[in-house]
Amino acid sequence: MQKADYDPEIFMSIAGTEEMTVDMIRYLYDYVDTPTLASIASAITEDISGNRVSFVSNLILNYTNVCNVRCNFCAFYRTGSEQDSYTFTIDRVIEEIEKYYDRFGITQLLIQGGVNPSLDLDYYLSLFRRIKTEFPRIGINGLSTSEISFIAKKAKISVEDLLRQLKDAGLETVPGAGAEMFDADVRKMLGRPKGSDSEWLGVMEIAHRMGIRTTATMMFGHVENSYHRADHLYRLLTLQRKYHGFLSFTPWNFEPGKTRLERDGLVTRRSGGDAVVRNIAISRIAFGHEIPVIQSSWLTNGIQMGQITVCSGANDWGGTIYDEKVIPATGKDVGNLRKETIIQALKDIGKVPVERDNLYRTVKVY
């Protein structure tokens, strides 16, 4: 099928269907122009949330950069022998949260780092209990599926038992980190362990079955093609229809700086704005009402692109940023972003800013 084979009637039938397939999603990627996608996606989002766009007062806490997975797309990890390797003690974590908790009204803590073999289950249980005791307003959005799987194996318990203990200690939700792109060949090129796609989906399914809500992500703009992106969205959609455990979905574009993929010449530049808008819009069309919240992923694209994606199918800005470390490791300076800036950015494009908490419940309407 060539570009000339695009048929508006086929597109409209896809956009209106509740039985999305991989081929349908791929058609959107390969044959539909960006303005059309953005327009249809925006209409779907307006039907879901009207003119409101949510955001959260969030703190990202990267508690360690020591990781034994060593992905080809990551510039953040260290093996543990480098001078800039670090692991926070529990006291240090508490000190970091104290800097921002009251001053900025933090309600969500995204805490993840690396798969650090020196840390055991007691570290995480003690850490989460301490956080919930000292910062009761915070919803802990904690640990990647890779971290969860490793902790369970090291403790010689099931993922379900681990999640139950973490939940009792204060874990509220599980972030979508580690999804990247599910295709096995792509994951091999990304340096992800064999079977890690099934591992990610498996951990999420266990969490959903237990009533623990999670988020979903997709990293695009590296070695994947349209089929891989479509397949990724379809697998998420399939799991969502079983339990409706995903709170939101965030597609984010790969930052190649200082990564092995860049050094090996496999990825030489980051995706542009058109790709960002297309992935936001297509995910909204593919998921429809099944995953009601699409997040703009402003962090890798800046405030203006955040505004554009909010007008192209996204209805959540994401969160505030204070000293996040993963993206800056690539050489990209993201700085900090306070909620006043988010509120103004949304008002500037005619949206109603809605502050939410970790579970996407309304805190305040501006």
Give a verbal description of the structure.
With 366 residues, this protein is α/β, with parallel strands linked by helices. The protein has a single domain, classed as Aldolase class I (TIM Barrel, Alpha-Beta Barrel). The chain has 15 helices and 10 strands. The strands form 2 sheets. The chain has a 6-stranded parallel sheet with strand order 2-3-4-5-6-7. It is globular, with a radius of gyration of 20 Å. Mean pLDDT is 89; it is low at 324-332.
List the helices and strands and how they pair.
Blueprint: H1 8-15, H2 22-31, H3 34-49, E1 52-56, E2 58-61, H4 90-98, H5 101-104, E3 108-111, H6 121-134, E4 139-142, H7 145-155, H8 159-169, E5 171-174, H9 184-190, H10 196-209, E6 213-220, H11 226-243, E7 246-253, H12 260-263, H13 273-287, H14 303-310, E8 316-319, H15 339-348, E9 352-356, E10 362-365
Parallel strand pairs: 1-8, 1-9, 2-3, 3-4, 4-5, 5-6, 6-7
Antiparallel strand pairs: 9-10
Helix pairs in contact: 2-11, 3-13, 6-8, 7-8, 7-10
